[in-house]
Amino acid sequence: MRKAMLILPAVALSVLATATSAHAEQAPGCSRTVQIGSTGYIKKNDVTIASVKQFIGCDRNWAYTYVWDSLANKPGSFSSSAAMWFDGAMNHASNVNGHNKQHVWSEGTKTLDKCTRAYGEVWGIDPGSTPVYWGRSSERC
Questions:
Q1: Which residue range(s) make up the domain with 112?
Q2: pTM passes above 0.85
């Protein structure tokens, strides 16, 4: 009985660590970020393949794209990107692309005084074709 009591807490900690590791949401170079607005989703047909979120931290706005395990763990490759959207257009200077990267952060933008949203894309998952699947978070002003 004593062994079971020691194993159960270890299993619980292991499950907790696994559950939270998918939410490692800290922008590169900024130790403190907070999500603002609602999460957007990228779908291929009716299947969600990624999430898009907007964060604020270090006097900047950040876009974050997270490719879901259901796509990231499949054989083959994919590409993903994250960019900030403001003044009615995507900010290409903030755009960051990742090949086979499950977590992609945009460059931080000094746009706290603007209406912004996060924008994300996933592509390269359909052999022989080039559709781009995209999504965006809610707009925050």
A1: 24-136
A2: no
